[in-house]
Amino acid sequence: MTAIPTLELNDGRPIPEIGLGTYAMTGPEGVESVAAGIESGYRLLDTAVNYENEREVGQAIAESPVDRADLFVTSKIPGRHHGFDEAIASTEESLARLGLDYLDLHLIHWPNPSVGKYVDTWRGLIELRDRGLVKSIGVSNFTAEMLTELIEKTGVTPAVNQVELHPYFPQTALVEFHRSIGVQTESWSPLYRDGGLFAEDPITEAARAHGVEPAQVVLRWHTQIGSIPIPKSANPERQRQNADIFGFDLTPAEVAAISGLERGRMKDRDPLSHEEM
């Protein structure tokens, strides 16, 4: 089992440096996959209302020998639940499906700017934190301008912003902005969704130099640029391999070369225009 180090969020709470993505882990196989991840050492489990697998994640947690207090469970509020009261109701429903008393981190899944309710939703998350139903609160897919608006209108800085981030889309300016205001970056689709990434010269060369797999190089790159990757894998061996990235360090030149692979988003999911309900 891999021991995963932690970072400190702006609210003082520790968060693991790598998490397990659970998208598409549904049904009995989903429960088994999440349970395998916990057994492999993952403590950060990332789900969402729109993944339709909160029950499966909750079942894996309930059946695990790992204490609930040692797990860091994240879920996300969908666009159809934006609004102050709606956010509170959505979170209570998530907790019921998960079978938990609290979430370690709750995020606004997408800002959906045309709806115009993400500030009200954020106020709902602040209320949930004050009630103790959520320990840390954050957002996903927010721009620097949206983060600034939340802070200016509520006085509360998100602990996390989870965004698309991988070597083809390193989001250098946003990561630096996060660092400047104390927001922790998380990466969804950290390994991209195309095996071609692993054939890129900077990645294969680093893998040979350090005696590791290309996926491990990419995930270590994430942690070294200051982002928490949330790779999704249902394969226990790959889960263990993905978590085993803290025994080597990429050189600054290797990090820069991997960041230099930048070419853009996987799909047209610009938060200013892409919306999910």
UniProtKB/TrEMBL annotation:
InterPro entries per record: AKR, Aldo/ket_reductase_CS, NAD(P)_OxRdtase_dom_sf, NADP_OxRdtase_dom
Gene Ontology terms, MF aspect: oxidoreductase activity, acting on the CH-OH group of donors, NAD or NADP as acceptor
Domain NADP-dependent oxidoreductase intervals: 18-261
Binding site for substrate: 109
Gene3D superfamilies per record: NADP-dependent oxidoreductase domain
Swiss-Prot/TrEMBL keywords: NADP, Oxidoreductase
Keyword check for NADP: yes
Active site (UniProt): 51
Record-annotated site: Lowers pKa of active site Tyr: 76
Family label: Belongs to the aldo/keto reductase family.
Protein name listed in UniProt: Aldo/keto reductase
